Amino acid sequence: MEAFTSLAGGLAVAIQPMNLLFALIGVLLGTAVGVLPGIGPALTVALLLPITFKLDPAGSIIMFAGIYYGGMYGGSTTAILINTPGESASMATALEGNLMAKAGRGGPALATSAIGSFVAGTIATLGLTLLAPYLVEVAVSFGPEDYFALMCVAFVTVSATFGDSPVRGLTSLFIGLLLGLVGIDILSGQSRLSFGIPELYDNVEVTTLAVGLFAVGEALYVASRRHIHEEKLEAVRGSLWMTKEDWKRSWKPWLRGTLFGFPIGALPAGGAEIPTFLSYATEKRLTKYPQDFGHGAIEGVAGPEAANNASAAGTLVPLLTLGLPTSATAAMMLAGFQQYGLNPGPLLFAEQPALVWGLIASLFIANTMLLVLNLPLVGLWVKLLAIPQPWLYAGILVFATMGTIAANPSPVELIMLTGFGVLGFLMRRFDFPIAPVVVGLILGPIAESQLRRALSISLGDPMVLLQSPISATLLGIAVIALILPFVLKGMGRFKAVED
């Protein structure tokens, strides 16, 4: 009951005119960038970080959350109409959605996607409302050694989740941890890895790193590629409305997709890709119309899209209660919090209840906005696909540069932006995940601080990390998560040799 009282207070914050405007801007921007292939919500939040640092924190973070939800929905439009997911989480939607569009049923495919997103997002946000206070109560009892162990779990799971190779993921993480060491050491007052450059004494700016890796790196990568085949846009033919049969075949997949998306999204190693494919496989197994799969089954769109949007709310559970990002966009939102001197976690609920509950309440509003806006504006989103890529990415480069100059007017910041952009391009070129670098930069100094606190309290005894049951359990999970991918890969090779 206390959670609903807090939510009511948050609703009073969320319905303030400026916050409603921020939510509207967020869902519109999010949907637009979700529709454009190759530009996801993480890149958009990264671009907006430098220009929002003087805005109201609550409004900016509400806008970032709207971008997240809108991006998750917008990715389904390109998945359905041109078989090109705007987000990796929309890959499962493309399997049946594009076949429906080719069969002249693009309208019902987009409709079940929009309504499923609304249903799943609303239920999952309700789950966030109910679950968050309990996780906060648990997290308040954590000591410094427990927090360090939790960070270790986050490092390992994030490195293993993003990308296809755990080694590449860990390499990306260590780049981020190395960058996190740059600057003045809080305890000793000595400069580290700053090479006598005054601008580096205040640490590497998260916004500069994020914009360089995501925006500049993506623009360079797209410019380096040539189109292998021309993307064919399927026109939206016929009515957008779903028939009675479509509703009958969609409502159960919406609910099942929510049950997959929210809990998996809330796990430290969650993400949206796993629940969407699990939902697709489940619907294929349970359907009464198996002949439709592979020819445009509406269940194959409804379930994955519900799982996709439910996972977006799920990722906010560890982000808000523990300060752990489990997706690239969540990492960008964490950077947004830190931009205003806010650290997500149990103390945030105590120190900034209006902001946290205002953000949660705004998710209900953003969901409703997405449903009301997206179906009538399908034609507009389709027209965005006609923007030539050179114009699009040239604009992103200009926007990224101007935003960085506005936030930190220094030649050193521009040099770092360029360097991080080249690093982002090389990482994409050789298939290294980007998100662990940002996570390492943000969480690395926090993990170091908690480790040093724990060792100071124990007078330098490292066994303090194993004496706490919570810490010992979390470190055990981290070790298993680190070793398991290599064991599974070794077993796969052994079986391949046997066969």
TrEMBL record:
Give start and end of each DUF112 domain: 20-438
- The keyword Membrane is annotated on this UniProt entry: yes
Entry superkingdom: Bacteria
List UniProt keywords, sorted A-Z.
Membrane, Transmembrane, Transmembrane helix
Regions crossing the membrane: 20-49, 61-82, 109-135, 147-163, 169-187, 316-335, 355-378, 414-443, 464-488
Extract the PANTHER family matched here: TRICARBOXYLIC TRANSPORT PROTEIN
Pfam families for the chain: TctA (PF01970)
* Coiled-coil region list: none
Under the heading InterPro entries, the entry gives: DUF112_TM
- The record lists the organism as Microvirga lotononidis
Name by which UniProt lists this protein: DUF112 domain-containing protein
